[in-house]
Amino acid sequence: MDRNEFVQPSVTTRIFEKSLLNKSDFERLIESADIEDAIRALQETKYKEEVSKLVKAQNYEEALDKMLVEFYKDMYIMTREDSVVDLLALKYYYHNVKVTLKEYILGEDLSYLYYELGNFPKDELKKSLDTGADVKYSDLVREAKEEYEKEKNPQDADILIDKKYFEKLREIAKKSKVELFEKYVRNLIDFSNISTVLRCKRQERTIDFLKKVLIEGGSIEISELESIFGLEVDENASVFRRTEFYKYLKLGIEEYKKTGTMSEFERQRDNYFMELVKDVKKVTYGPEVLFAYLYARETEIKNIRMVLISKLNSTAPSSIRERLREIYV
Predict the structure, then answer these.
(1) What is the pLDDT of residues 68-114, one digit of tens each?
(2) Which of 31, 104, 106, 187 is most buried, taking the most CB atoms under 10 A from its CB?
(3) Has residue 329 been placed in a domain?
């Protein structure tokens, strides 16, 4: 990946960064009286154009999804190297592949579940399952369909799509030769695999099922994860302590053991990656600058979503603060 290709995009990205919400902005959202008051606060930020179109404050989900899609479209336009954006956007494309297959299996129109992102060929992909036409993602959706047909189990197809997603991420990161990207993908796989171990244990799954769903390519060997599967979950286990994200992992597992939910585990995962990309502030130009901004903006939208749903549920400000991810600025 030629770093010189990112000189101007990096300059533009640094300008975009100035519109990221800071702690004071989020504090105002958190302390707002209700969701309507929070929406009014957002009208004084970068998000004013979309939130001003809301007929009802309760329709915020639609507005946020549109903001996310437009944000990714802008980033694809700004850089000639799509793979930098793909590292974060691919999860939405592979989600769309799952929706396409689900529509085929159920015979229902699930258009409302799609992310209208990039050049995803939604209609052509649906038709390709019957026609055999060669369009983007058609090989993947057909392979997933074949996997489903074996046992008529939609989960089998989802597992295959998830594995292909991580394979694609590894391919992009390796080809880029950017240390940050390789570390991001490697550790994302680790978090995904640890989450899988925890969920499989709670659901009393078999070791054979675990072996089927674990993803290759993390810093923790698959064999190590399999070896701890039959043991009591211990956040201080050496296999976890050796990771570079142990501080975050420990907090996430401790809370999971108390509550049985993955929300804090996922928050700590996101906090780790935010700390990782914050180091990019020292980088003058390069693909890392765009990636860090992408991660920061997506996290910001995630936090806004959390605040608004909390306001709908009349959640106390102190509880909202505990649930938010770390921010970039």
Answers:
(1) 988 999 899 988 899 999 999 999 999 999 999 999 999 999 999 99
(2) 187
(3) no
